[in-house]
């Protein structure tokens, strides 16, 4: 069996009523004739939306097919034991040309009980934001179920929600249960559990294309919401030149940011997981013992778990990556 090399995948573009054109104009990705491209799924194991390899001798194979053949060599022994052939993370770019609905995702226990699916914990890295753009994360005051329902019923929900103006580089961790929404004018990278379970709780009284109110999931959301008030919702971090800096570490994924202007050597020999590189700025080549792959801003590659060492060579004056793995 031939060895595994850095893998690229064909993006899966999603037309959304709230989408725009930044995936093309900012990330230089061709989504064809879609009128409102809201999402580019970079790496997906979601049923009916499984990513397909675009480079090397494995081109044309789906991510699920690769896991069936390579198992732990591709994703890591523990990851394979836990998730089988379902890839555990979904990587997206999201372009919000309008405010998205206020929503919440259930945790693993509730999602398993109701939908026989995993919950959804996620994180956002803001890549670009128009001046004054805001996103919503959590509450701005002490809230319990009764207060939440009162505000919802009286169309005053936004009064108790935490909205934050954002700029490029801002990071938000969104654990399952936290009420959240992406605001108009924001382009971001999203890392999440492989799950498509979302409860929409408020949609600014908007109507769909046929003039009907969009479906809300008020009853389902009540038990899913974490009403805890957090002292801060934005992740604080300090980048270090040519070093990985941790942004998020949780049970489902670890995400680091890596900014560099010289060759960086990464040792993954003790890591029992795949590694995902999401290029935020610049262009580079990732070299391994079994192959190399060049990529640039707006592109994502998967480093197989069997890879012990990666050499990252910048092809621009500076490079900025998100580095994602499990563990």
Structure overview:
- The protein is mostly beta strands.
- The protein folds into two domains: 7-224, Jelly Rolls (Sandwich), CATH 2.60.120; 243-325, Jelly Rolls (Sandwich), CATH 2.60.120.10.
- The protein has helices spanning 22-25, 63-70, 72-75, 77-83, 108-115, 145-153, 218-224; strands at 7-8, 12-20, 37-43, 45-46, 49-50, 89-96, 102-104, 122-129, 134-139, 161-165, 171-174, 180-181, 186-193, 199-202, 243-249, 254-260, 264-267, 275-281, 283-288, 291-296, 300-303, 309-314, 319-325.
- The strands form six sheets. It has a six-stranded antiparallel beta sheet, with no helix packed on it. The chain has a six-stranded antiparallel beta sheet with strand order 2-3-6-13-8-11, with no helix packed on it.
- It is globular.
- It starts with 6 loop residues before the first strand and ends with a strand.
- The mean pLDDT is 96.
